[in-house]
């Protein structure tokens, strides 16, 4: 878990910096309200409950939605209601605390609303960064011995390198191709969660 958090925070700092011209912090507000409310639930489940109970269910959901995104990469613009943004953020708070994977539901929501790739990234990148920082801070308070990050800093460089190449691809593909790529990665992430523990 701590390796995922350290690598993800390094990656998100890099991505937020690179995409800073399009980042919409204000638009992230409802998602963050939802996630801050439920992040403690995810962290509690991480600390107290077997991941083998929850992660396969998350994996099945990601696989199903990933397949949908691959097959139908462009959707008509939705109304983007406030309750939906808060709910997507709340679900992200749970998965962020439990599996260091906060963006799945926010990404799904953005795709369902028909957001283009730039608008989606402008919301998800800062959302991930804030959630990962909050998760690390909470874990350092609750379990300081187990969350020490100094021995995991060497994972940051490969993570940033991967983000660099990911942004190169992001800037060179169309919105529908981007959605297909996101869908494929959601399927891969889901398969990782449903593997036997």
Describe this structure in words.
- This protein has 197 residues and is mainly α.
- It has one domain (2-194).
- It has helices at residues 2-18, 25-48, 51-71, 82-99, 104-112, 117-142, 156-170, 175-194.
- Helix 2 crosses helix 6.
- The two termini are 15 Å apart.
Query: For the report, how would you describe the main beta sheet?
Result: none
Determine the N-to-C terminus distance.
15 Å
Helix content: over 70%
Rough shape?
globular
Mean pLDDT: 82
Low-confidence stretches: none
Main structural class: mainly alpha
Number of helices: 8
In N-to-C order, the SSE pattern is: HHHHHHHH
Which terms summarize this structure?
globular; mainly alpha; 197 residues; 0% strand
Summarize the structure.
The chain is mostly helical. It is built from 8 helices and no strands.
Write the layout of secondary structure elements.
Elements: H1 2-18, H2 25-48, H3 51-71, H4 82-99, H5 104-112, H6 117-142, H7 156-170, H8 175-194
